Amino acid sequence: MQLTQMTKPQKRILFLSLALAIPFLFAPAAWAHHPQGGETPDNLIQGFLSGLGHPVVDLDHLAFVIATGLVAIGLQWGIIVPIAFLATALFGTSVHLRAIEMPSLELAIASSVMLFGVMLVMRYRNAFPAFENTAIVAGLSAIAGIFHGYAYGEAIIGAEMTPLVSYLVGFTVIQGGIALASYGLGKQLFQSWRLSRLYSGLMVSAIGVVFFSQAL
């Protein structure tokens, strides 16, 4: 069947399927390995590329970044949600660089992914008014950012200032771009096909459950 012969519902399903497949296309065998082969970046370019890669090669981080853009849709000043995450992710990285221990890190990250997936589902059903409150959602996003940012810090431990700064710039740029893209594309999709919010939430939740079970 050609694309021009497909009905609108079929096109929507195809679009959603492709959108949900993007994380897997970005991260082939790289999921098991961090950028630069696990080595600490030692120059500006390596630092920047490592920063671009880290949030993409780890599916739990990628799913959450996408979710921050999706949950922002429909909220007043919703763009604050991904911005709060970006800001506290930088703070979380600085916490790691100060050698401060953060217990149950993987559980916290997986829980944040599950929570934002559930949030999308609840927003679809209008079942939990608190998830319509921008301040609450942005606050949860900010808390999650600390844990995700702390995990990002692992790849830059021991680096000099130049690659360190470029790493921070890299992962902030890529996360901001992904969140904005998910916000823009998701807004169009949610308006044309309301069920897409539900399916997106279920997919994000499922990813969170998988990582949560692995972290136990």
Please specify the SSE layout and strand pairing.
Elements: H1 8-26, H2 44-57, H3 59-71, H4 80-97, H5 105-125, H6 134-152, H7 161-192, H8 195-215
Helix pairs in contact: 2-3, 2-7, 3-5, 3-7, 3-8, 4-6, 4-7, 5-6, 5-8
Summarize the structure.
Keywords: Membrane, Signal, Transmembrane, Transmembrane helix. It contains 8 helices and no strands. It has helices at 8-26, 44-57, 59-71, 80-97, 105-125, 134-152, 161-192, 195-215.
Key words describing this protein structure:
216 residues; mainly alpha; globular; transmembrane; Hydrogenase/urease accessory protein; signal; transmembrane helix; HupE_UreJ
Give helix and strand order, one letter per element, not per position: HHHHHHHH
Distance between the termini: 45 Å
Query: Which stretches are poorly predicted, pLDDT < 50 over at least 5 residues?
Result: 25-33
**Gyration radius, rounded:** 17 Å
Number of helices: 8
Tell me about the biggest sheet? Answer: none
Number of domains: 1
The averaged pLDDT comes out at 86
Shape: globular
Total beta-strand segments: 0
**Helix fraction by DSSP (H/I, runs of at least 4):** over 70%
Structural class: mainly alpha
Question: Mind explaining what this structure looks like?
Answer:
Residues 1-32 form the signal peptide. The chain crosses the membrane at residues 62-92, 104-122, 134-152, 164-186, 198-215. Keywords: Membrane, Signal, Transmembrane, Transmembrane helix. By secondary structure, the protein is an all-alpha fold. It has one domain. 73% of the residues lie in helices and 0% in strands. The chain is built from eight helices and no strands. It has helices spanning 8-26, 44-57, 59-71, 80-97, 105-125, 134-152, 161-192, 195-215. Helix 3 crosses helix 7. The termini are far apart. Residues 25-33 have low confidence and may be disordered.
